Amino acid sequence: MKLEKGRGFTRIIGVVGVAFLLFMLGLFLGVQSLPPAKQLKNVIDSTGQIKSLAVAAFKSRPDQHLSRRWYPEDGVTIADPARMEPGVTFISGLFGQRLGFRLFGADGQLLYDWPIDFFKIAPEKMEHRYHALIHGALLFPDGDVVANLDGRGMVRFDACGRVKWMNEDRTHHSIFADESGVLWAPTGVVEYDKPTLANVIFRVDRIASFDPETGAKLSEIDLVEAIEKSDRIGLIQDMYRLKDDVVHLNDIEVLSAAIASAFPTFNAGDILVSLRNLKQLWVLDGSTHEIKWISAGPTIGQHDPNFEPDGTISVLDNRPLSSINAPDGYPGVHGGSRILAIDPADGTHRTLYRGDAQNTFYTPYRGKFQRLANGNLLIAETDAGRAFEVTPAGDVVWSYVNGWDAENVGWVLDIGRYPADYGDFAGKSCN
Ligand SMILES: [Ca+2]
């Protein structure tokens, strides 16, 4: 009898344990929106993340969007309009219990806080309140915003938070508006079974463009087709370690006619992409989609390359290898993140900015930036919960720390400096 009881107790413990593991797996799968093989791998790799997500689900904390503080201050603490690029600063991120968007004036004043909460934008797709991420956001002159509900779709809403359209094209990471206004974003991943390339099923993102007025998909570029067409299948032969996300496409830019003459080897319409898992940048021919240029070597885990008017390609070289939260890890084994300028004509690169003792700079896993017309850099140091503008001499002329509580900061995911009249809508009423 005692034995039976013991067996029953053991069975109950087993069932509870399995149920708990399945629950945690389900929670993780839901939050990540990933295919099962990757989920399982990540579950094994990410017990710390599971714990933080469980806390987010049950203790009402958006832990997926928080980092431990590195900077003690809060809000805009430096604003030097005379040395800043003119305009208003648009950011997305976690503000209190809301995932949303804010606009700041040059003097540091908060001009607008969109009455929208990305944690509530698509409740039918959410596993719990904090099951969302903004990754890619653009501001329009009338206060409209288009943003990615990361991995699910793109949404456009007005200054009053009214949704104009939302698609379900699984866009993620970034949104770029070309000179005709068409929106470009990474989509996917898409599963491939191609024995000529690999003897495993593998997954690769795609490039897609969208109508800014309706959200309808206008075109799609298959990167695997581009690789095959370019006779460069060697680029993904080392895919087995990351077969469920072979390239991790995290940015797309289309070369505008306005600056194309600065790039003698490229043409207007050519497409620049950042492939984080390959640690490479590619430029695809805008018509044939063949790969016509590759940069490999200068960057690790990079984000947000841009075609610049001086004929270079700028890029945020994240240089991960330690957590920003590691007490002895900051700012990473490589000395922090940096902004590079790569000359595609000769393959050389130089550092435009890296942190120093006066201004550390390290965002190992995320981040965006903009090279401003006056030569300054506007940087979203996402994993540190900070955004700042720095001059070529290294002087910080604007700084914003997105404090969440005494110990944590909220991620600042996207950033952009827009002409000052993009803030004009902010005085209008929504009623
Ligand atoms: Ca970019």
UniProtKB/TrEMBL annotation:
Which Pfam family is one of this chain's hits? Answer: Arylsulfotran_2
Reading the lineage from the top rank, the first entry is Bacteria
Task: Decide whether keyword Membrane is in the record.
Answer: yes
Transmembrane residue ranges:
12-31
InterPro entries, A to Z: Arylsulfate_ST (IPR053143), ASST-like (IPR039535), Quino_amine_DH_bsu (IPR011044)
Q: Which UniProt keywords apply?
A: Membrane, Transmembrane, Transmembrane helix
PANTHER family attached to this UniProt entry: ASST-DOMAIN-CONTAINING PROTEIN (PTHR35340:SF5), PQQ ENZYME REPEAT PROTEIN-RELATED (PTHR35340)
Specify the protein name: Arylsulfotransferase family protein
Q: Which organism is it from?
A: Albidovulum litorale
